[in-house]
Amino acid sequence: QVQLVESGGGLVQAGGSLRVSCAASGRTVSTYSMGWFRQAPGKEREFVAAISRSGGSTYVADSVKGRFTISRDNGKNTVYLQMNSLKPEDTAVYYCAASPLAYGSRRAADFESWGQGAQVTVSS
C-alpha cells in the first residue's frame, strides 16, 4: 500500500490559482495511476482528474476542464493538481488517490489508497 499526504491547500480569491501536491511513501508512486477527487460539505465525493502511471494520459472532469491540470513527477514521488481560474464552487476538500489501473479511472472504487485531504477555499 502507498501512503499519500496532500499539501498546498488554502484560501484563494476567485480567478486565482493554487497548486495542491500529493506526496507518496511506502511504495513508489510510479506503481500507480493517480487521481484527484473532491468533496464539498453535504455533497458526495466527485472525480476531478486522473493521470496514468507514466503520466502520458490525463483525464479531467468536465467541471474543471480547461482550468485544472494534473501532473506527476515520479522522481519526486509526487502528484500535482494545478488549479487555475478558481471559482467559489471549487471549494472542497481535495483528496489524492492511488489506483492499480495503469491508465487511471474516474471511479472512486478503483482507487486503493487515499490521502487525508487538503482544504481549498475559493472566495468571491
Outline the structure in words.
It contains no helices and 11 strands. The model has no long low-confidence stretch (mean pLDDT 95). Strands 2, 4, 5, 6, 9, 10 and 11 form a 7-stranded mixed beta sheet that branches. The chain has a 4-stranded antiparallel beta sheet with strand order 1-3-8-7, with no helix packed on it. By secondary structure, it is an all-beta fold.
Which short descriptors sum up this protein?
single chain, 124 residues, four-stranded antiparallel sheet, 11 strands, globular
Quick one: how many beta strands? 11
Percent in strands: over 45%
Helix content: under 10%
- Order of SSEs: EEEEEEEEEEE
Largest sheet: 7 strands, mixed
Overall mean pLDDT stands at 95
Give a brief description.
This protein has 124 residues and is an all-beta fold.
